[in-house]
Amino acid sequence: MGSSRPLAVLCALAVAAPAAAGSGGRPLGIDAADSLVEPRGAFVLTVLPGGPAARGGLLAGDVIVGCDGAPVGGLADLERLLAARRGDAVRVRFVHADGRRAEATLRIGPPARDGASGARPPPAPPPRAAPESRAPPVAWTPFVDPVEHAFSLAVPAGWSVRGGARRVTQVEVRLEVRAISPDGATELFYGDASIPPFIAPNRMLARAGLRPGSVYSPGYGEQLLVEPYATGEAFAATWGARRVAERCGEVRRTGARDLPGASRGLD
């Protein structure tokens, strides 16, 4: 029994003002998701350049398993412990992708005072280029999956690039790459390691009591989320808005376009 996932939605481009270290709900300067396999904890998807996590030696693919002496079983635990922190530093325990364990003290600035707004001011509009000016050509450089060397792709030269293959189970590998421009204003992302594989509802699952929203485990530790099939456009309408909203407010979808040539190539 196979899983289904829209193939047309594998690459996206977002222009955002990344959360500064210590603000916007990301005081560690990371993007994270729940780790679905051992070790359990907060799986680090992206480490923002120059942030507390980057300075403390954390890497994309690490799993945070403790914070200030308390265990971290998932992203919600980490967020709760960070919200309750005292002072301008936290001690985190984490596990590297190769199994090595480490600890680091991350200085993140004092928590916001009661009644203070945590919202970031809207970014200033970019300066308009003179009509005769032209953007310089983009230089590209190869990025090779640092985890399993499973793939390579071209990324803009000079950008901070993180990601790779994440083996969730013996049979499931998720790919994700994020590239952030030197000025921190633009992010390119390919794939999303937080998206699980899906399986469409059917009679067999219904007889087993598995309705949409349930998790079906066919074996080998794999977990499939039971959801009706969605086209790439429909999937992007929900996932894309949520993904871009992580860094931008007031996200508004303006349109969509099929890429049949790219879909045929993937198939």
Q: What does this entry look like structurally?
A:
The structure is a single chain. This protein is of the alpha+beta class. Helix content is 15%, strand content 30%. The chain is built from 5 helices and 15 strands. Strands 2, 3, 4, 5, 6 and 7 form a 6-stranded antiparallel β-sheet that branches. Residues 1-25 and 110-119 have low confidence and may be disordered.
Oligomeric state of shown chains: single chain
Please mark out the parts with pLDDT under 50 across 5 or more consecutive residues, or reply none. Answer: 1-25, 110-119
- Major sheet size, sense and barrel closure: 6 strands, antiparallel
What is the CA-based Rg, rounded? 20 Å
SSE order, one letter for each helix or strand: EEEHEEHEEEEEEEEHEEHH
- What is the number of helical segments per DSSP (H or I, 4+ residues)? 5
Strand content: 25-35%
Rounded mean pLDDT score: 77
Tell me the structural class: alpha+beta
* Euclidean distance between termini CA atoms: 18 Å
Write down how many β-strands occur, each being a DSSP E stretch of 2 or more residues.
15
How would you describe the shape?
Answer: globular
**Share in helix:** 10-25%
